[in-house]
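Final report, results section. Input specification for complex C-07:
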Amino acid sequence: MTHALSAFPLPDPESARPAVDATLVSRAKLGDIQAFEAIVTRYYARCMRFAHGMLRDAADADDVVQETFVRLYRALPRYEERQRFDSWLFRILGNCCRTANLLHQRRESFDVGDDAALLNVPSTDRPDAAFEEEWGDEVRRALAEVPEYNREIFLLHYVEGFSYEEIERITGVRQSALKMRVKRASDFLRARLAGVTRG
Amino acid sequence: MTLRPYIVLAVVALPVTLGAQDARSARLDGKLDGETQAVVLRTLDSARTRGLPVEPLVDKALEGATKRAAGPRIQAAVEMLMRRLETARDALAPNPGPRDIAAGADALAYGATREALVAMRAIRPNESIAVPLGVLTQLVASGVPVARATRVVADLLRRGARDEQLIALNNDVRNFVAAGVSPQAALDVRMRGLNAVLPPAGVAGAATGDNAAPTALSGKKP
Amino acid sequence: MADRHEPGPLVERALESLRDLPPTDSEAVARIVAAAARTRAQDASPNEDDLLPLSLAGRRARRLWPLAAAAAVIIALGAALVARQARSDRVATTPAADSTSYIPVSAPSLDAVPVPTQFVYDGPARRVVLVGDFNNWDEQATPLEREPGSALWSVTVPIQRGRHIYAFLVDSVWTVDKRAPVARDPDFGVTGSVILVGRP
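Structure output:
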């Protein structure tokens, strides 16, 4: 079975990361809970996607994303519009994910088997759903083996569409170091998944 | 009602509370253009609010001024340093000293990971780790991969290596690299020398602490 | 390293899978909003005056005006005292100067005692000054002294233990220390020198 290979772009920044309405943020800063709810709705799926990629235990994703938004809400009065809102959000999310991973590591040993929690039930309408499910599982298992500090930058850049400049602002890590981390994550995934496709 | 007691109180209280903050801000006077100074001062305020040391931020702004850097570049450098200070502060919890926070931020800038900082703190929870972090930074800057440099410094700390031994290790690696030896080989040969001097971990009595990141400290390939 | 690292077709395929967005769970969103609203209620610390009846608030304001007047009077005094403190603050500061922001993990100890550290420059010059992160990069603060009859310049300064960046200004020209490791400078692009300071 073959799959068409797309030419590689980064996710289109505008479609992957629609800028949040500045009015919404201003209202949320003043305590407008409905404006905050609209922000959560806008970013929930992206945060869950990132958390699933980052966390040692995907079952932590709900708690981590909730913690992220609660922290963001409490910090909203200090938010300054000169920084991109999603950069700020993902900075908080990254911190929460790393803390959760640290706590998880202290509770139990690392087990790639936890990624079974990420399985999606395939739709019977899609004949190749089973293959896609297997491939998706393998990808997530491989990603889970990438060291966290490389994985995070890889996800921010290639999945969430942040530029290196933005990631540098989010993390404070130099762009040169960021590029090295992305390359190492890519090299690791390529080597790991090559074994899957050959097998 | 007399004003005298209020004046006396205010004269005593105000300079003490304002003096420390304004002294730091005053060091920037005349060194930065107006807009850059305003932005940097806002960053300093933000850092204070977050409980971060502001001295490194003032130093970074002064460094940029001495190096004749453009205003926006100074603003960006100070802002990014503040973020690194926050990451370092959190990684080196609880209650790290300002030098350790600054050293941690320095290490992060050169590619050290948050996990490495956590690991160092766990091994040496009650003493400053500014020197080990500085050595880690320099090893990485010399070309030693981050994971390897972290494992080596962490291992040496567990085995009771003194700061001077760590500094000597770093100086030797640098000299070998300058002579054309690969950073990895230079580190390997010097570690062989230290292995003859330092006891294994556990015998030295140094705290082992949690292994924060297995990929940073174990033999796993990064 | 190239700005556009190409991950390759295999990783591209992996990314297609990783980019799938999960559905937005409206119940989860509602839980998040409720949790946030609860914390905001817990965080709220209303201004005391907002709770006082207007008559009492007025009385409080009348009690406070002498303080306001006193503040106006002492501004000039305070400015003079601050300026004096700024001048005395020009030397390299110690962590204690910033102690309002954080609590050190241990009591002041030998760790906090600066170490006398010598810097040496070798070369002809009229004036050599040391600048670094230990003296506020001050171009006037730390001149080196020349050894009579030689081109060796030196100065010894107290420096906190750890890693530090510095350079010499040789007749106002930025000059790295040839005998020290080079410090890359991604912030400003001006290479400096590195010194690691331990216990003497």
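The domain at 118-199 of chain A is CATH 1.10.10.10 (Arc Repressor Mutant, subunit A). The first helix of chain A runs from residue 13 to 16. This concludes the modelling results for the funded period.
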